[in-house]
Amino acid sequence: MGLFQQFVQLLGFASFLLPVASGSPAGHFLFPRVPEDPSVDPFYQPPEGFESKPLGTILRQRSVVTAYFGELPNPVQAHQLLYRTTATNGSAIAAVTTVFKPLFQKKGPYQLGVVPKEEQAGITTTLEYLIIQIYLANGYVVASPDYEGPDAAFTPGHLEGMVTLDGMRAVVNFRETVGITSKIPMIFGSGYSSGAIASGWGASLQSSYAPELDIKGWAMGGTPANLTGTLLHIDGSPNSGFLPIAINGLMKPSAYQEQLHSLFDRVVTAEGKAALDEAQTQCTTAALNSFKFKSIISTDVQSEGPDILYHPVLAPILSENIMGINVSERPVVPVFVYHATKDQIIPYANAKSLVDNWCNQGVSVKFTTYEAGGHATTDTLGVSDVLKFAESAFSGTLVRGCTKNTKLDESLDPLALGVNLEPLFNALSVALNKLQFKF
């Protein structure tokens, strides 16, 4: 199940935020209704003639009630926006972003944080939404785009970058509703793991695709900078279930269906078709279990074997999705990249190559290496550094150039973000301890 096909549920601690607010709208304390399936919900259907609208045009909007575990209402204003964006082939599509207005907008009416949602479920989603809650508690307006577009296209970088940038345009168009009075608000984008595809490619395409946006910086962690490298890293491993999900994502209509459909229709075996069908119909956790320890480059799955990676149809697409190799697709504002050397899902070497390429291209990069922990832990360990980087980006105090540092500790400091956020950091610790058993 893709993120576009799931109703947004912000997992936050109402008890932590309620004392901060005064006179909060009563409607935001109502228990949320069960959402309609997007396939029958008219909100997700773009109106006739939307293709002619400018990029980022808001096509539909609605207020929503967000909730912790879908049950306990989270007392923040939340809105969904359906907006016009672009498919990989340049055609018009519509996507959704969810905008959250904090109860205490102490950062001023001009700053927006963009945190792409990840296509994950269970405790991982809990962890991600707790991190979003920290941004809200810091006073930022937060936008969380469904960067995979209308058909849950997981991994195609150009698509996800454009959807993310157009989501920013949509929020700029919606700014007055969430208390952003500046006509050109300052923006900071951040994403981890699959969300780092969206933030990394958003940073890469910003200068050519959305130069008018006043983006001050980007952060990305556990970044899948090279799809082939990631494939080889997890093929046949406990995390190989991501591979059928990724193949399905590349074959979606908004991605590379036109190029890839006939190839995979010809080479995929009955076993491979079953794996792709399961990944298409299951949520992430179930799909991971279905293909655990299996190989996507095995002839049991597709007749080409390892040679599939060099096929003249697939190879250019995989190359096109390597972040950092095209000088014309380099970030024009500072970026923060962080990665664990022992990342079980996304190879550290590819992140390092990305940073090296960007530095050689003149990009300002801060690169933090985590020697302890792995993919799941680094998501949380990087929170305080990302927020500090965002603060510096908004204040204009980031140091230009390339810097690299290494962190050895994998423990969480509950006071790292201030005493008021200690309850959230404690909750992150609990979620993180549970999550480590999944990888």
TrEMBL record:
<dbReference type="InterPro" id="IPR029058">
    <property type="entry name" value="AB_hydrolase_fold"/>
</dbReference>
<keyword id="KW-0732">Signal</keyword>
<protein>
    <submittedName>
        <fullName>Secretory lipase-domain-containing protein</fullName>
    </submittedName>
</protein>
<feature type="signal peptide">
    <location>
        <begin position="1"/>
        <end position="23"/>
    </location>
</feature>
<comment type="similarity">
    <text>Belongs to the AB hydrolase superfamily. Lipase family.</text>
</comment>
<keyword id="KW-0378">Hydrolase</keyword>
<dbReference type="Pfam" id="PF03583">
    <property type="entry name" value="LIP"/>
</dbReference>
<dbReference type="InterPro" id="IPR005152">
    <property type="entry name" value="Lipase_secreted"/>
</dbReference>
